[in-house]
Amino acid sequence: MARSPKPFQNESVSVAFVAEKLQSVVGIEISALNDADPELRLVTESNQHRPGLALAGFLDLFTHHRIQVLGNTECRYLEHLSAEGREAAFSKLLVFNIPCFFLTNGNLLDAPLLDRATEAGVPIYATGLPTMEFQARLGDFLSDQFAIQQTVHGALVDVYGIGLLLTGSPGIGKSEIALDLVERGHRLVADDVVIATAKGDSVLMGAGTDIAQHFMEIRGLGLIDVRAMFGIRAIRFQKRIEVVVHLSPWDKEVEYTRLGMVDSFHDILGVQLPLVKLPITPGKNVTVLCEVIAMNHLLGHYGYNAAEVFAERLTNKIRSKKSGAGPDRGIDYFEHDYE
Description:
8-stranded mixed beta sheet; elongated; Udp-n-acetylmuramoylalanyl-d-glutamate--2,6- Diaminopimelate Ligase, Chain: A, domain 1; alpha/beta; Rossmann fold; 5-stranded mixed beta sheet; single chain
């Protein structure tokens, strides 16, 4: 298979981007408490920090480069201090280059503290969500933004709920097979360029690019818009990549698997994916084979392996040492049914 492009990941995102996406995509209601410009502050990692010890004066291990989350504990600590003490404790944090603060559980800060943050250029936001829920949702969003990604040349199609990544040399027919699958009721995720994103150690998500989206290039026909032509039911914007189907011209010198459909794996971003090597010959119905690959993967997920079942039957037959003129019929009696 062709060498894959090098992985890449975001080095930073702006606080303005994070705040806007938390509202429009993640669905968290937040409000800005001061006038600091969030475009000027950058988030450089997915981890967050709760600065309780830093507010108390211990700054040796203060991870100031992370988003700072002020929950009930930090806010109650500030409230028990005098007005001068609160300002002094909070000002110690603003000496550092902090991306932003998020206050949870509906907590607020006094106006003098907000003014100090504005002077330092540090945005402050508030949300009514409990701290643990907010951190979980923020952490998931940031993990996605800083996840390792890689572009893969191929077509990604949702077939019976299984994400099939069709790969192969240019002109082998990946787009045509994907189009045929869409016509049969399956859903296109991306064609030609798939952005693979690692989510943890064993999950690989796929999506298209912001430019191509659900356009397809069919050689001899040109560009088509799958969404406009087949409707919203024919597309998905994301799908887990679960099986790689590599298409190649039939080579009589190559021995292809005949008992087990999957005999090897393909590595993308450290995730091992089942690999099916599918030889292409004139007249072969590759679309149906792709459907069978998806259904076979589903059966395997639920513990059924056709090759193992057949091998067990064959072994039992050999062990029985039954001799005869030929193989036994699969049915003992035709019951006068001659249709």
